[in-house]
């Protein structure tokens, strides 16, 4: 799988009094990228929720390199760096004109909605991800 | 009932690139004020949700007078201006040192969670609100 | 001018524990629509800020009709219902498959950034808006 | 220095359609905690900005352990784990009734506002932080 690219625009809602994108919001941008990667593979969020499971973020390790500004056009670049039975790790970058502004590794686990306990990623989802993931190397 | 007062602080998360509080966030401040008014009457959000009903905002009419800044200490002043069978209207102000920055009328309806259709406000909630409301005049 | 249409997707960041779009966030959606309308006329936010003026929201009157859900594809429909010397009023709807979910009138004023006092909308911006606005009737 | 404790309440604005606190928002909670720690030492955000410098987050490494719910009362526990010339690292936890829900290490750098380049933390700020930091051991 080649990296997934998702374009977005910076709006005033994304900025803070420093005149730049509020750093917390890059995590929202990254989630949009992951969501669209999953959607491009045929999995809307709704699909997962129907089985009483959901994906939740268990960890985020983010580095900020340069600030984005109001009106900037950004791209979220997403790949899967690890796929396990009950979780996966996304490697993501938010870039502007090819220049990385922010990069992160996000660990997303599949949990049972009622108990919030880790469970196996649904079979159909896992096999599609595995196929994509192995194609990558 | 005298007006309900709820204090809050402006954090960087609340601001935008204009260097002031992002106007949309006053609606969050107002909701915190309404939530705390209800809590002061003995009604946490959870209590309502348990009966399969929930309060949802059906309308908001907001005027912005002066901007708030980072670090400002604000107060949300809330009263109930109308109480009907299935909805109520809150009159709210966000003030700084007694000076109004933002004022609004928020119409909040009680709906059945499954259908999102209006239903009567639960009896215990309604009677407490009515008592408070009538005391006001 | 025909109405301006701006499409957007609902992400998890837009929702709340009620399982629907958090009502405050429709105001963000509407601002994206206004921003893109202005951009389509040649005016990025940056252009306004350069003259030491900025647009700020002075009032918002919003009605909520039906809730949007996670993953929904929405459209923000925007027109200008009034154009004055120092402010304009936008009429906006957020729709899903042609069905209105939320509608609002947003009053946006042009202010001097330093003082936050109302000033005339920059001439070039005003004349383009006026031309668009008069074409409408 | 003993750890700094900052209490907060979970409002509907903090939650998502999963019925829990949206994980991105813990970063907002943590920033409130850091801001109040700095304020308790005599440094409002405004003080830093006046010298043409500002603190920006350069990195965040966050682990999510258990979800918080609507209405929860949380505490942000903050300490400084490293103090360098131009940056510091905060160690933070968001806890509920003593139980950690989320923990993170946040690297905050001092930059020149115009260039966004790292600069030395202002002397008065650095010496107070150093004093607090050394007291800790």
Shape of chain A: elongated
Strand content of chain A is: 35-45%
Radius of gyration of chain A: 16 Å
Major sheet strand order of chain A: 1-3-4-5-2
CATH class of chain A equals Alpha Beta
Low-confidence stretches of chain A: none
How is this structure best described in words?
With 137 residues, chain A is α+β, with helices and mostly antiparallel strands. Chain A has a single domain (4-132), classed as Hotdog Thioesterase (Thiol Ester Dehydrase, Chain A), CATH 3.10.129.10. The first copy, chain A, contains three helices and five strands, in the order βααββββα. The first copy, chain A, has a five-stranded antiparallel sheet. In chain A, a hairpin with a 3-residue loop joins strand 3 and strand 4 (87-96). The N and C termini of chain A lie close together (8 Å). Chains in contact: A-B, A-C, A-D, B-C, B-D, C-D. Chains A and D meet through helix 1 and strand 2 of A and helix 1 and strand 2 of D.
């Amino acid at each position: 799988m080649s990296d997934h690219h998702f374009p977005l625009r910076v709006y005033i809602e994304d900025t803070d009094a420093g005149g730049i994108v509020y750093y917390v919001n890059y995590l929202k941008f990254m989630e949009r990228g992951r969501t669209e990667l999953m959607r491009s593979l045929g999995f809307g969020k709704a699909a997962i929720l129907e089985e009483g499971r959901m994906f939740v973020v268990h960890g985020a390790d983010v580095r900020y390199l340069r600030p984005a500004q109001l009106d900037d056009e950004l791209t979220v670049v997403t790949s899967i760096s690890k796929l396990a039975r009950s979780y996966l790790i996304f490697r993501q970058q938010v870039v502007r004109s090819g220049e990385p502004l922010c990069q992160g590794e996000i660990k997303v686990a599949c949990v049972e909605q009622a108990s919030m306990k880790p469970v196996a990623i649904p079979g159909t989802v896992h096999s599609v991800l595995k196929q994509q993931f192995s194609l990558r190397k």
